[in-house]
Specification:
By secondary structure, the chain is mostly helical. It folds into two domains: 1-39; 41-194, no CATH class. It has helices at residues 10-39, 41-51, 55-59, 65-76, 86-93, 116-130, 134-145, 150-171, 177-194, and strands at 98-102, 105-109. It has a two-stranded antiparallel ribbon with strand order 1-2. Helix 5 crosses helix 8 (150-171). It is elongated, with a radius of gyration of 26 Å. The termini are far apart.
Length: 195
C-alpha cells in the first residue's frame, strides 16, 4: 500500500506531495545558483588578482595562471608583517621538512602540523610551473634521478619556488626569468669554485 492509497492517509499523502514538489523547486533553484557561481569562478578569481595591488606579481610567475595566481595571492596575503622571512612561510606551509637532531644523529621527517591547503597548492603550483619554466623542469628531473618520488620532487621544487615567491612578494617585483637564471648561474659558479 503506498502513501495516499487509503482515505485515512490521503491528507498525509497530499502533504508529502506538496513537500516533495517544494523541495524539488528549491533543489532546482540551488542548482542554478551553484551553476552560476561555478561558471563564474575562474572569472571571479581573475578579477581578484586583477584588482589587487599584488595580483600582477603572482600573475607574472610562470605556470600560475588565473586560478593558481589567485590562490597564491590569497595564501600569502598582503600583510608584510605576517612573515619575517621565507623560512617561516616554508615551515607554515609544510613545504619545509622537520630536522630532528640528537647528539651526532639527525634525520629529516615530513611536516604534518602545517597548513595543508597551502602545501597542496604549492605542490600543485610547482608541478604546473615545470611546464613553463626550463630551470624548474631541470630541477625536478635532477631530483627524480636522485631517487626522489614524484611528490617529494614537487615539494622540493615548491621549497625553491616559495623562496622566490617570498622575495617577489616582499619587494613587490614581477618575476623575471633572466634575473633568476643569473642567480642560478652565480650559485653554481660559487659552488664549483669552492669544490
Amino acid at each position: 500500500m503506498y502513501v495516499g492509497e487509503s482515505s485515512v492517509s490521503q491528507p498525509f499523502g497530499y502533504l508529502v506531495t506538496v513537500v516533495f514538489h517544494s523541495l524539488q523547486k528549491d533543489k532546482n533553484i540551488l542548482e542554478s545558483q551553484l551553476q552560476d557561481i561555478l561558471g563564474n569562478y575562474p572569472a571571479f578569481k581573475e578579477q581578484i588578482t586583477h584588482s589587487h595591488r599584488l595580483g600582477e606579481i603572482f600573475k607574472s610567475i610562470p605556470g600560475s595562471g588565473k586560478i593558481m595566481s589567485a590562490k597564491l595571492l590569497a595564501l600569502m596575503g598582503d600583510n608584510k608583517s605576517a612573515y619575517n622571512n621565507a623560512a617561516e612561510v616554508q615551515a607554515y606551509s609544510g613545504i619545509a621538512p622537520i630536522i630532528k637532531r640528537s647528539g651526532k644523529k639527525s634525520r629529516t621527517v615530513f611536516r604534518f602540523s602545517c597548513n595543508k591547503d597551502f602545501r597542496d597548492i604549492l605542490t600543485l603550483f610547482s608541478y604546473c610551473a615545470m611546464q613553463w619554466c626550463p630551470w624548474a623542469r631541470a630541477f625536478y628531473d635532477r631530483k627524480r634521478k636522485e631517487g626522489k618520488r614524484h611528490f617529494q620532487a614537487c615539494r622540493l621544487l615548491a621549497f625553491t619556488w616559495l623562496r622566490i615567491i617570498y622575495v617577489l612578494w616582499e619587494r613587490e617585483e614581477l618575476y623575471d626569468e633572466s634575473i633568476h637564471s643569473a642567480n642560478v648561474a652565480r650559485y653554481y659558479q660559487r659552488n664549483i669554485k669552492s669544490t
